[in-house]
Design goal:
heterodimer; A: mainly alpha; 73% helix; 0% strand; B: mainly alpha; MetI-like fold; 14 helices; 70% helix
Amino acid sequence: MTAATATAPAAARSTASRGRRRIGRTAERWLLFAAVLALTVIVLLPVAIIVFTAFKPAAEVNAFPPTLVPGTWTLDNFTKIFSDLPFGRLFLNSLVFAGGVTVFALFFDSLAAYALARLDFRGNRVLLVVIVASLMIPFQATLIPVYQLVAQLGWVNTFAGLIIPRAADAFGIFFLRQFFLSLPRDLDNAARIDGAGEFRIFRSIVLPNAVPAMLTLAIFTFVNNWNDLLWPLVFTTSPEMGTITSGLTLLTGPSGIIPYGTMMAGSLIAVLPLAVMFLIMQRRFIESVATTGIK
Amino acid sequence: MTSLTRSRDRKRAYRPPAPLGGRPRSGRQAPIALLFLLPALVILIAFVGWPMLSALRLSFTDASGFGIEEWVGLDNYVRVFTDPRILATLGNTAVYTVLFTPTALIAALLLALLLGNRKLIARGFFRTALFLPFIVSLAVAAFAWTYLLDPQVGLLNYWLRSVGIQLGNVLQDPTLAMPTVVLVAIWKNFGFYMVIFIAGLQEIPESLYEAAKIDGAGAWRRFISVTLPQLSNTLAFVIVFAMIAALQAFDQIYVMTGGGPYRSTQTVVMEIYQEGFKKLDLGVATALSYVLLAATLILSLVQFRFFGRREKDNA
């Protein structure tokens, strides 16, 4: 627009230099794109090796020189993982364990967070400080007494043993409390005037408005437990009660020979539910990480 | 967020006048609060609070999980700090932390800066792709890397050999095994730190960069005097988070090396697991747990204090 009002030669000159600059910028853009693309390809190599190897026949898996993409595609590794391990059972165990922890922890954490954010009682502050302090305790530090307790309760190799010790979580309580504090109180008070009890207010006013935070916490909890190795390793001794993650480690026996094909097929199945969840809800997924990070 | 505002608008239509003193005071909600808190408190007391005390008691005994437990005073702690085998696990964890934290952070920050660049095409795609490793479990990541680095049939090992880099069997090499298990953890976690950095970078007001540009600051100078100080809170969080994660290293080590070769990757949590669940020396295992706990607490406190002070200086 400004070029139109300027004198002709000046306009020509400025268009030319702008054009040159644009070419420079385009080159810069593509260079940047190429660099990041190269980095991304390198980073995704382990993911690619899982996906491709899962469909490779045994001969190709152990062939030399090694290849990335299978020459012939086969489902043998998938049938083999179900015969080598009680794989369907392991998958179900993972689902019940990670899903169970998520459901319980979300319910109990949100109840506690509601009390800390909305209810007036003596010791509120102290309790909050204690809960925040307990965030710094790594679960590995209390694993032995927790195991003793679970064993005394007869919960080793049960879903109760896997789920109940994690049915509440200091981080979840703190995270939801922060979110509940940010919700306006007008609605609570209005409902209170209408004679609603605290549980009604919690269930029909606070929870529906806290769906984003609850979903964030749910994703976080589910992924962490689905992927956890040490916890199922300690609380399950029978191969029937293990999770996908702990079950797959049984393939790396002391023999030293690792059946890479079946292992990658198992790994692919282990990653798939999270990958699908991630690709469907990637915005929420990534935002959830970023928000839990900043808070 | 949108659902929140929408429902607020909807209710506003028939909301009664704002009640005076509608918010109860003076702690008279204690009974109902207790009901809300009870399930979580029972779980946390039973499975975090009580085990903390129980671990402390066990760390002063020679407990094995069976039979009589004798009080042995500080013996277990003395063993942790004098027995070269156990002392080495503290050293290994320190080495792991020192290798992991700065490398993961620099990789994450670098990629965050690249992805934060508005000139980059398909930023959303790259963010998704680079975050993908974070949803892969460390155990599965360990399987993939074990195959890639296999001395006979490993693709990465083969490629590196063809450009003249002879890695050999990294997982059996006492000097290379540790960097390898650290690499797997970096691969899994950098995307997480990167996403946090991207969010942190977006919080920095554009005007600061423009002011720096007017003052003639180059890209590096802008990074040092605008980006880094503005990002200090995020950095503090990520450093503490990464160090704490490093102190807890277990999964990929269990899968890839089992602590070997020659215990060169035997970390504190590997040792707690083996002493506590294989050798059944609960005294030493819980004493080591308390060392881990102390290290975790000290790190978080020191880091937050340091960055808190820097914040104040900058203000």
